[in-house]
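Notebook, student rotation project (T.W.).
Task set for the rotation: take a protein with a known small-molecule partner, predict the structure of the complex, and write up what can be learned from the model alone. Partner molecule chosen: adenosine-5'-triphosphate. Sequence and SMILES entered below by T.W., checked by me.
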Amino acid sequence: METVLSVSKLTKNFGKLCAVNQLDLEVKRGQVFGMLGPNGSGKTTTLGMLMGVVNPTAGNFTWFAEPASHHTRKKIGAVLEHPIFYPYLSGRKNLELNALIKNANPANIDKVLNIVELSGRQHDKYKTYSLGMKQRLAIASALVSDPIILILDEPTNGLDPMGIAEIREIIKRIAADGKTIILASHLLDEVQKVCTHFAVLKRGTLMHIGPVDEVGKGEEIVEVQAFHDDLGVLLQEFIGSATIKKEDGQFQVMMKEGFHSADLNRFLFECGIVASHLATRKKSLEKQFLEILADAK
Ligand SMILES: Nc1ncnc2c1ncn2[C@@H]1O[C@H](COP(=O)(O)OP(=O)(O)OP(=O)(O)O)[C@@H](O)[C@H]1O
Ligand SMILES: [Mg+2]
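Predicted structure of the complex:
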């Protein structure tokens, strides 16, 4: 898969404060790449550097294996700060102006209005739009030049649950349309729901990077309860057990990769034991995220 963004040792200091610290990243074509981190972890600063609006202190990055230039930036659409639209013009008119400035094909306007589900409200004045509609118009405006990459900073900030769900659907639709997306978010479930890959930042430092669907792999935990005196000893004999913990009267078996609760159940059954409780807990991204952050202390 083609690498669209390669970041090496990217650093930004604001005076004494190190906002981004020797960041290394790679984003490949077709990924929905999430930058996850708490407030102040350096997400916006990183996106700012990638978009050429913040000067790096050190390090470098390439877009499409080329140093950033006017040429590479034309392939990127971004929604960084609150975009400026004309309040008394319609959503469509605003997009037309945008397309003109960017020298984009006006034929894209209908397509992007459709993608962000604003076709029905395209002729209404911008000032009558809800926050969610404004955000959708901002995404449409970033897409109007048909970029290869779409960059979004906290795309659902300030929206109600309905608005959040709409934006997430739209992001998935844009990804399905073949665009590579890089988005910053401080919300775990957002990254889990929309991203294919993610990086975790803490105080400007990269803590973790990898595919979202590999989170939790080999980390299945099975809770077991059974009326048997030597259950703990027996569980150790099960070849799928990695580690065993006892908590609140029940055993928690951390499984080795490739083993599942059904294997454990079969093992117990063959030992003549019927479990009174057997439940699988996948380690959630949230847990791992918290662990990653805790490790950094
Ligand atoms: N222009 C600036 N001058 C000084 N410090 C800055 C500037 N911009 C950002 N910072 C600092 O850099 C750090 C990272 O900020 P940044 O906005 O990149 O974080 P973030 O991860 O986007 O946070 P949030 O989730 O709140 O948007 C913060 O400590 C912030 O105060
Ligand atoms: Mg930010």
